[in-house]
Amino acid sequence: MTHPTTPAAAGTGMALPAALYLDLVQIHSTPYASDNRDRNGSPKSALYGAALRARLSSQHQRHHDRRAVQQLLGVHAYRTRTTTLEAVKDLTGRGWARDEALTAVQMLILATGIKGLGITDNGGTNALLFLPPAAITELADLAHQHRDDFAPHIAAAHTALAKEIKKKPATDDDTEAPADAADGEVAEDANRTNVLTAQAKKITASKTGFLTKEHVLRILRTRNAIVAAYGRMLANEPGSTVESAIQTAHALSTHAITTQIDSFTAVDDMIKELGDASGAGFLGEQRYNSATFYRYSTLNVTKLLDNLAGPKDAAQATARDTAEAFLRASCAPRNAGKVSGTAPHTLPHLMYAAVRTDRPVNLVGAFEEPVPATAAGGYLAASMARLNAHAGATHRFLGTGRIAGHAHLTLADDQTFPHLGERVESLEEFVATTLATIDKARG
């Protein structure tokens, strides 16, 4: 069977694979810790293979990985509801009054006409916007460029908002919030959004307006390497949506776990030194577990290239840098929950990277049956052996013709993993070998 390909790259005479995926797998032992907690403060868990497993949510991992990738690349994007407030800071630095700047920027956002996108009582947006820093500057630039045009609309909006405030019924006791305070705040948010939306429609009116929706939508559609890698979704605005090139699975322990309860005390230093009393200043309970995790993520190199704007050569260079950051970020330190009292800064015992030209392959099926502890104790050796065996079964099932190359890095000196490709001896070699495979596969 021949591999599906795209047309030959200009001037190279070589056909590129239609798809190129970088799969990254880790076996990672963590100590007594609470890295990722649920709303009750317990370590997150999941049922898999009819057994309770420790879990690190994909959102938790992506957040930490994205921060590491940003630091490594020196490129940032911010997922926040405070885009408007950041643009206001820029404008006040240019001499705008805060109320004037806030109203102008909010009207710009509402001028997009995106259904459901509104303003909250703190001045931010009710939806998270994921944008590069340059987009916030562009938003401020657009407002500043049309400052005189905005002036009558700002005045009209402030007059309308003052009338809305007068309509609000007074309460007998201003020191106590009414029982439906939350509903009242929502109503106030809606009122402000409605008033500003009415003015925003005049700003973009076809005959009298000085802006179009596209002026602002172009800014909300701005992307960089981080947005291209991690994707973006803005409801009811498909033009801003970017399909993520990186997919991350929930990390699961390779074995069944039991949550452990720690009854802890906090000593009152002053009382203890004075000897006036015995006992603790505070008593409490915290839940922890210890686990050997299977972690999996995949980078669609082809999708990343599609997502990147600009000249082809620049996009290819950025994609390569992003792939390198993706590999290195998986081994970066994480600011885990309860980190001060657990310091769970361990390294993965095994990292496996496979560059494929057909599809991504998650090897979690190796652990559908929980790994039992070995006679000597622990789960690491058995987990790594199970992963190697399952990779071999996968190779028999799919064949190896679509694996452009694969390699592994391990702390285990007494085990071999023949189904995990070439063994390398350092993170630097692991990254270099994988990137060389991607370069070769891309021609």
What can you tell me about this protein's structure?
- With 443 residues, this protein is an alpha+beta fold.
- The protein folds into 2 domains: 218 residues, no CATH class; 136 residues, no CATH class.
- Helix content is 41%, strand content 19%.
- It contains 14 helices and 14 strands.
- The strands form 3 sheets. Strands 3, 4, 5, 8, 9, 10, 11, 12, 13 and 14 form a 10-stranded mixed β-sheet that branches. A two-stranded antiparallel sheet has the order 1-2. Strands 6-7 form a two-stranded antiparallel ribbon.
- Helix 2 packs across helix 4, helix 3 crosses helix 6 and helix 5 runs antiparallel to helix 6.
- The protein is globular and about 80 Å long.
- The protein starts with a strand and ends with a helix.
- The N terminus is likely disordered.
